[in-house]
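During the reporting period the student researcher (J.K.) took over the structure-prediction task from the postdoctoral fellow and processed the backlog of single-chain submissions. One of the processed entries is reproduced below for the supervisory committee.
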Amino acid sequence: MHSTWLKRAGAAALSAVVCGACAESTPVSTTTTTMAPVSPGTGEAAPGVSGGIVTGERAADEITEARCAHEYSCGNIGFGKTWPSYGDCTREAREANRATLAGQSCGYGVDFSALSRCVADTRGEPCGPPVYAAPLTSCSSMKLCR
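J.K. obtained the following C-alpha cells:
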C-alpha cells in the first residue's frame, strides 16, 4: 500500500513538471510568405519591385541595359558607330527612358510583366540600323505604365 501511494505521488509530481514546462514555453508565431518578381537570371527579388509593380526608374534601367546589350551585339557601338562607347549608349538611352517612365509620366509605376515583355522584345529584335528613336510597341508608356 505504501508503494502504491509512492507511485501515485511520483506520477503526480512528474505530471506537474511536464505540464509546468508546457506552460512556460514561448508562444508560437506564424510566418506568411509572399512572392515578388525576380531579377532575370538571378532568382532573387528585384530591387525597386513591389507586388508586380516596378518603379519607373528601375524599368528605365532594365530597358536601357537590354537596348545597349542588343546594340552592342549588333555592332552598333564602337569607333565610327552610332555610339562610340557602351557608356555613351547607356547614358543616352537611360536619359530617354527615364524621361518616359520616371516621375509624373508613369506615376503609378510600371507593370513587371509588361516590362519583361519589353525587355525580351528588345533583346530579340533583329539587327539593323538602330531604331531607338522609334521604341518597340511593347515598350511604349501606354503598355508599361500602370
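The committee noted the following: The radius of gyration is 30 Å.
J.K. will present the remaining backlog at the next meeting.
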